[in-house]
Design brief:
The chain is α/β, with parallel strands linked by helices. The chain has 10 helices and 16 strands. It folds into 2 domains: 249 residues, Zn peptidases (Aminopeptidase); 112 residues, 2-Layer Sandwich (Alpha-Beta Plaits).
């Protein structure tokens, strides 16, 4: 069984630190792309192909391997709109932006696979996809076109996951991460003096009722997951002389399957229309950050588990799905594949928190798993 060399492990660890120091937000990853493409060109002979806001690297196999169905691996490139709150020698150089989800480690691991593939002659073509905008759900949908274009028949990715033993391989059969979307409903009326609210049309009561209604949408869990989370609510500026004329409610809907999520959306929008008609308000809505559900394919997952077994890594089956959404599901609609997780440590800080930083000690496991799948 092949493992990443110590020299290459040191290279990708250094690369990870460089990427961490220069984070970029979703759909603004041009500098990150430049770092990655330069690294791959300098250290490998893989073909590098730039696309609109993303790129892929290709390791071709032997002439005979060209006829075999190709496979792909994916890493995400974007960071989060969060300050760096821990003291690191390679800390973020950009205020308000930091890699608090571990995408810097995902990219470094995929580059580690590229370094090792450069020494091998795989039995099929291997595509390495470097994807933008995972955090907003906008990236995979544009990159998934490569699956159809190249006839890729399997795709794999990993995410680092705290709460599990360090370097354990964590998995779930079938549904592993839910669908989700952000819904913002805006209600418009007419402002007035606070002493004469009857002369205006305040949306305050309708927004309050809509917020309460939203909390009943998910009382009947569907496919193990149904959740409506209020993430924003606003009406007025707290000026005691003004009755406000507009406001909004923002929620995140999550469900095990997209159809049920859409049922919740329909119910919420219908209630908003009902309240608006009652109170004489105007209404409009916007859908953002759309994520499909992530459903692992059995055959692909077996390949992951076989790889973990060959590396003698501890394997843990998740009893419940990971509630965070992941746009990897867009690829899985195009071809079989699997998302697996690598434990950061049982007490390791969670992603999307101030104290989080990617655990360099799992980089070797990530690359070795990719190699085992190849």
């Amino acid at each position: 069984m092949r493992h990443i060399s110590q020299d290459n492990l040191e290279k990708i660890t250094e690369l990870r630190h460089l990427l961490h120091s220069r984070p970029e937000l979703s759909l603004h990853e041009s500098g990150t792309m430049g770092i990655l493409m330069a690294f791959l060109r300098e250290n490998t002979s893989l073909e590098i192909v730039g696309r609109d806001g993303w790129f892929y690297a290709l390791r071709r196999g032997s002439a005979e391997a060209e006829a075999a169905p190709p496979i792909a691996f994916r890493a995400d490139m974007d960071a989060l709109p969060m300050d760096e709150c821990i003291d690191l020698p390679y800390g973020s150089s950009r205020p308000g932006i930091s890699h608090k989800c571990g995408h810097d480690g995902h990219m470094a691991a995929l580059c580690g696979l590229a370094l090792e593939l450069d020494k091998l002659e795989p039995d099929r073509c291997v595509y390495l996809i470097f994807q933008p905008a995972e955090e907003t759900g906008q990236g995979a949908v544009r990159c998934a076109e490569l699956i159809r274009e190249k006839g890729i028949t399997g795709i794999y990715a990993f995410h680092n996951l705290s709460g599990y033993p360090e370097n354990s391989i964590v998995y779930r059969r079938g549904l592993t991460q839910p669908a989700s979307e952000g819904v913002t409903i805006s209600l418009r009326g007419k402002p007035s003096h606070a002493s004469a609210p009857e002369q205006g049309l305040s949306p305050a009561a309708a927004i309050a009722e809509l917020a309460l209604f939203s909390q009943h949408l998910a009382q009947e869990p569907h496919d193990g997951m149904a959740l409506c989370t209020i993430v924003g609510m606003h009406c007025g500026e707290g000026d005691f002389g003004i009755s406000p004329g507009e406001g909004f409610l923002s929620v995140t809907l999550r469900a095990g399957q997209e159809p049920f999520m859409k049922e919740m959306e329909t119910a919420l929008l219908s209630k908003a229309a009902e309240l608006s008609a009652r109170d004489g308000l105007g209404t409009e809505h916007e859908i953002q950050d759309y994520f499909p559900e992530t459903i692992n394919h059995d055959e692909a997952l077996e390949r992951v588990l076989h790889g973990a077994g060959s590396l003698q890594l501890p394997v843990i089956e998740m009893k419940e799905l990971w509630r965070a959404s992941e746009d990897f599901g867009h690829y899985l609609k195009q071809c079989p594949g699997a998302m697996f997780y690598i434990g950061n440590g049982e007490d390791y800080p969670a992603v999307h928190t101030d104290s989080y930083n990617f655990n360099d000690r799992i980089l070797k496991t990530a690359v070795d798993m990719f190699l085992a799948i190849v």
